[in-house]
Inverse folding.
């Protein structure tokens, strides 16, 4: 004889409710996914799996970095700022790598002098001088750990490595 109309309508209503519940659960699940606005590498996890996060953005979850281009921030002493130029060749060294030189160029020069960001243990170091923050981009294909402290050598035009 076939189904009664009431049974079919009830079954259709149950199906619609199930579809709505599924959509609601999928929306809730979607809110648990964290997406990065950039392509990059997770450099540091601030929270562990299972910890709660709010949508306020007040607590960082991870530190991300684009490691396709490595950059070095250099403090240039105020007495040397007149000799800086975009595109100027640079090399950096790190004690962990011995005499190895990592080459690059100046890509940005700060607009305003400020206080020193880095202090050495040298007793002759002047702490009352100002610096100009300069950004150096290392040439492709060179790898250094993120956050490694390096010594920076900005070459005058015509100077050879």
């Amino acid at each position: 004889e076939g189904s009664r109309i009431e049974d079919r309508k009830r079954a259709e209503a149950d199906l619609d409710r199930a579809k709505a519940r599924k959509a609601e659960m999928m929306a809730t699940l979607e809110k648990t996914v964290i997406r990065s606005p950039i392509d990059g590498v997770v450099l540091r996890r601030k929270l562990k799996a299972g910890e709660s996060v709010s949508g306020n953005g007040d607590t960082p979850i991870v530190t991300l970095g684009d490691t396709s281009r490595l950059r070095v921030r250099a403090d240039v002493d105020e007495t040397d700022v007149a000799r800086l130029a975009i595109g100027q060749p640079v090399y950096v060294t790190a004690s962990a790598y011995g005499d190895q030189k990592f080459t690059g160029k100046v890509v940005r020069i700060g607009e305003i002098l400020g206080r020193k960001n880095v202090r050495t243990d040298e007793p002759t170091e002047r702490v009352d001088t100002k610096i100009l923050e300069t950004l150096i981009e290392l040439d492709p294909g060179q790898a250094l750990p993120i956050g490694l402290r390096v010594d920076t050598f900005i070459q005058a035009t015509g100077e050879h490595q």
User: Anything to note?
Assistant: The radius of gyration is 28 Å. The mean pLDDT is 83. The longest strand covers residues 102-109.
